[in-house]
Write a structure and sequence with these properties.
The chain is of the alpha/beta class. Among the domains are: about 90 residues, Immunoglobulin-like, CATH 2.60.40; about 60 residues, Oligo-1,6-glucosidase, Domain 2 (Oligo-1,6-glucosidase, domain 2, Alpha-Beta Complex), CATH 3.90.400. It has 13 helices and 23 strands. The strands form five sheets. Strands 1-2-16-17-18-23-20-21 form an eight-stranded antiparallel beta sheet. Strand 1 and strand 2 form a beta hairpin. Helix 1 packs parallel to helix 2. The chain is globular and about 80 Å long. The relative contact order is 0.12. The N terminus is likely disordered. The structure holds 1-deoxynojirimycin (NOJ) and calcium ion.
Length: about 575
């Protein structure tokens, strides 16, 4: 049932409104925050080994403060063999030497505090690395031992135990089970891994696992982090008996929804885990937060994750997957706000992250990207990069006008495209190898950032080649080049973020402006701001109002101090978004 039809607000000059959400007055910095995702290995390489590091983040944090974000979320920098770019953790309470030391982490935290930026870190509780001490101990201990019980070991099926214990598949391709050799050298039990072979799943039926993660939470909270982004938060608990299941283990944000009945996702016992964690965070005051990476469907189920005593936020992947389909977008926005309002939680919005093709590339296609967005290669149909960047600006501007929190992925403020010309020999995502190259994986969105066009590797680092090659276009998109161009993507982001803060849009309300919603355009009012996006091929007439910001300014003058005044009759081009100030009276 749609609430659109239930809540009618009075008409403004531009026509009737359908109210969906009223302004949020509850306390909590995160409720309206813009959180910037730093992917450490690709952010900035200060020691010249070709891989980003914590010192590089510290050095460039002022750029993020200048962008006017509230917080940064760091993907994993913990000790790890890097089989899944750090989502395979071998020590949760230390920094991998690749990225630096705990002292470097503390220096980064001090710099963030000086700049008034909060820092959220990634917590990976579903699985660890096969090099983690607990897993090594499990391998050395007999079947049925407490060491094995930290993980999900089972005997195989078939006369010799040569078949996996059930039919579950790994998210990265192939079976979700790997058979070990027992300490005596004989083929032995199997262990479950929803992701790569090198990522054994923990057994969350074991209290010792709970105790260990509570220790990890406190370790980072004591070091001053503002909270945790919880990796595959919907997967920790598995259904009793590990029943067979026919679907693919789509537990990741790069795919669609897992089925409602998936025995490895969304089990009821998860919620008590997050309640316990919330109590721990509360001991540190009201400002530490938990954000779920939980791919659950339908949206009201996602609301279960952010009830008042559970997590603070959850990623809104339905929003990301709605693309530029205005009917889907309207449905997701309405359903999100209504479902989350019912439990008193803010929504979040997101367009890109380290698991999906960047939105400047996705929107360079009419219709879906090739390979279902599972990476794009040299021999695939190529995107229109100019169109993609233009539409990306429009989509970001549409998103940043919405009430709630927003997540940005590093480089989207530069309008970066995916890296497409990556030689097979350099592809590192385990998906590529586990599917025999059929799925290219996520390397394309993880290419190191361009900072300064004239420097080696466009300023990512002055030593060895970056761990993934940068496309040629990165030079003209480098941050220093865009800083000097008044109408660049970067300067648009700076203006959007400053204006969003000034107008308090993150705390605002949302009503659809019906006369400007069509099959190819969407318009909403948030407070006194009107946001219109046109994804159709033809220009649309603008409602009356003062133009605050356009996603495709023709010239620098359109950013001039005195806003243009429109009384109707002006147009919004194809693939553009505008923020207008409603005429008063
Ligand atoms: C989700 C992360 O975002 C992704 O990068 C990772 O591969 C999986 N979880 C497994 O940890
Ligand atoms: Ca480095």
């Amino acid at each position: 049932m749609s609430v659109d039809s239930m809540l009618k607000a009075p008409a403004i000059a531009a026509g009737p409104l359908t109210l969906v959400h009223t302004a949020d007055e509850a306390a909590g910095w995160w409720r309206s925050a813009v959180i910037y995702q730093v992917y450490p290995r690709s952010f900035r390489d200060l020691n010249g080994d070709g891989i980003g590091d914590l010192a590089g983040i510290t050095a460039e944090l002022p750029q993020l403060a200048r962008l006017d974000v509230d917080a940064v979320w760091l993907s994993p920098f913990y000790r790890s063999p890097q089989k899944d770019a750090g989502y395979d953790v071998s020590d949760y309470c230390d920094v991998d030497p690749l990225f630096g030391t705990l002292a470097d982490f503390d220096a980064m935290m001090a710099q963030a505090a000086r700049l008034n930026l909060r820092v959220i870190v990634d917590l990976v509780p579903n699985h660890c690395s096969d090099q983690h001490a607990a897993f090594q101990a499990a391998l050395g201990a007999p079947a049925g031992s407490p060491e094995r019980d930290m993980f999900i070991f089972r005997d195989g099926r078939g006369p010799f135990g040569e078949e996996p214990p059930n039919n579950w598949e790994s998210h990265f391709g192939g079976p979700a089970w790997t058979r070990i050799s027992e300490p005596d050298g004989q083929p032995g039990q199997w262990y479950l891994h929803l992701f790569d072979t090198s990522q054994p799943d923990f057994n969350w039926d074991n209290q010792a696992v709970h105790d260990e993660f509570e220790r990890v939470l406190r370790f980072w909270l004591d070091r001053g982090v503002a909270g945790f982004r919880v990796d595959v938060a919907h997967a920790l608990v598995k259904a009793p008996g590990l029943p067979e299941w026919g679907g693919r283990a789509d537990g990741n944000s790069c795919d669609g929804y897992p089925g409602h009945d998936a025995p490895m996702f969304g089990q009821p016992a998860l919620h008590d885990i997050y309640r316990a964690w919330r109590r721990i965070l509360a001991e540190y005051g009201p400002d530490r937060i938990l954000c779920a990476e939980a791919n659950v469907d339908p949206l009201p189920r996602l609301a279960d994750w952010v009830r008042p005593d559970e997590m603070h936020q959850a990623f809104n992947f339905p929003y990301l997957h709605a693309g530029l389909d205005v009917h889907r977008l309207r449905g997701v926005i309405t359903d999100s706000l209504v479902a989350l309002d019912a439990v008193g939680a803010p929504s979040t919005w997101v367009l890109s992250n380290h698991d999906v093709v960047r939105h400047a590339t996705r929107f360079g296609y009419d219709g879906p990207a090739p390979r279902d967005g599972d990476g794009i290669g040299t021999f695939d149909r190529q995107p229109d990069s100019v169109l993609g960047r233009k539409r990306a600006a429009a989509a970001s501007m549409f998103m940043l006008g919405l009430p709630g929190g927003a997540y940005l992925y590093q480089g989207e403020e530069l309008g970066l495209p995916d890296g497409i010309d990556i030689p097979d020999s350099q592809r590192q995502d385990p998906t590529f190898a586990r599917t025999g190259g059929e799925r290219l994986g996520r390397d394309g969105c993880r290419v190191p950032l361009p900072w300064r066009a004239a420097e080696p590797h466009t300023g990512f680092g002055s030593g060895q080649d970056p761990w993934l090659p940068q496309p040629a276009s990165f030079a003209e998109l480098a941050r220093d080049v865009q800083t000097e161009q008044p109408t660049s993507h970067l300067n648009l982001y700076r203006r959007m973020l400053a204006m969003r803060r000034q107008l308090d849009l993150g705390r605002g309300s949302l009503a659809w402006l019906e006369n400007w919603c069509s099959d190819t355009s969407l318009a909403y009012v948030n407070g006194t701001t009107l946001v219109v996006m046109n994804v159709g091929p033809d220009p649309v007439d603008l409602p009356p109002g003062h133009v605050l910001l356009r996603s495709s300014p023709e010239s620098a003058e359109q950013y001039s101090a005195s806003p243009e005044t429109y009384d109707g009759g002006h147009q919004l081009g194809s693939g553009e978004t505008v923020w207008l100030n409603l005429p008063v009276g």
